[in-house]
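I have a small job for you when you get a moment. Would you make up a two-line entry for one protein for me to read? No commentary is needed, just the two lines. Write everything out right here, beneath this request.
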Amino acid sequence: MAQALATNAYSVLTLDYPGFGDSSGEPGSLAAMIAVAAAGAQLLRSQGCSDVALGGIRWGAALALHCADSVGASAVVAFAPVTSAKRYVRELRLLGLPDPNGSGGMSVGGYYLSGALLEEIARLPLAMPATCPVLVIEHGEEDRWGGQDSEGAQVNTWSAARLGEFLDRTAEDAVVDRPLFDRAAEWLSSQAPRAPQSAPAFGVPRIASSALVSSDGARCRESFVYLGRDQHPGVMSEPVDSDAAGILVLLNSGSDPHSGPGRAWVEVSRFLAASHGWAVVRVDARGWGQAADGPSGPGRPYDPHFEVDIAQMVGTLREMGWARIVLSGLCSGAWMALEVARRGGVDGAIALNPQMYWQYGDVVEALMADVVARRADETADIRAKAARGVWDREDAAGERCPAARWLDDLAAQEIPVELMFVTDDPGHQYLQERLAARVAAVTSRGDVQIATLPGVDHAMHQVWLRREALDAFATALMRM
């Protein structure tokens, strides 16, 4: 949407609610969410934007409609807006993980929503604004312009046949209908035309801004950065009162943006920078988050061009003077970190739940449950042959499968490598059953180590257990 509007001479500001994305704080109150719209409108007007429109998807669309009159919006574009706050909260409770502490809160996609916040959301009255035109884009069997509603209000509707291809699918499988966003941008242009000469001058410097952020009572400094030839955008967290021991690079996992799954990378970054003396940069490869499109369009897990992007990131960090660079990621991001680390050029790797059985060309599923189901026969065969000693004899004979060669390559680099797995993770089971002898040989040398995180889930969505993961990162960095 931002790209479509930018090509129509609009400046676009995307915002994170408090406690979401890269913002500070926690998701505390509905008032804080609503205040974001007013703050964004004020900033744009201070930069010379005479007309400010609001837009959003689902809950963001509902908030845009709710705030439009109070912020003096010139128009609203609402993609499939929530129409019943109570029903929306019921949906969240069905989809999320309840807090085991009995607080009434829950984790939805790795974001913690308190019981009080959910109650506030459920009570929010939802209605169309009275002072500006609205475009509602809704699900439909075919693309069809609905015109204005029957009461003559300024509400236009567009039924979009392909809306569900990115709203009703997991992010890894979503397909964005670019013409739909172009159509929305054209409608917005017709409602709030602006003279090109009045456009504000937003630059894109290498370091756009810097701020101090609190983490567990300690502070760190954060800056927006752009790394490599392709200007990979990211956020760098650094210690305030001392020089950093090195820099940890957090890579995209699945289709998560640089903030990580449920903004786990934000928490990891601030924790390590504020309390453990390491700089951390969480960054988007091409096709992910705020980065430019990659060769395959939206970023997909295990995209081959990710390796090239990582090399660019590392090269720029070397040019910036970082002498100690450690790569890290989760699942597919962990796989990529190890793939790059085994070829040299970095000083360590921390891989959380790497699925080392995966190879380029294999099937990619968004959900780990689907991976487990597809590999059920293969897993059973591996376990049976392990019990008969087949794999140990193969290793003794010098036969190496791709994952075994990976382990040897990592050990040959003579850099610290930490493989961390949650309980019963398929990647850990694979190493134990298929590569037990190779794992024992490699870990005995000392550089490659394997650790477990009991209780933590694969995607780190159980927010109440995230501190265990933070501590594990801190412990692993002590070896780096």
Remarks:
- Residues 195-206 have pLDDT under 50 and may be disordered.
- The chain has 17 helices and 17 strands.
- The radius of gyration is 24 Å.
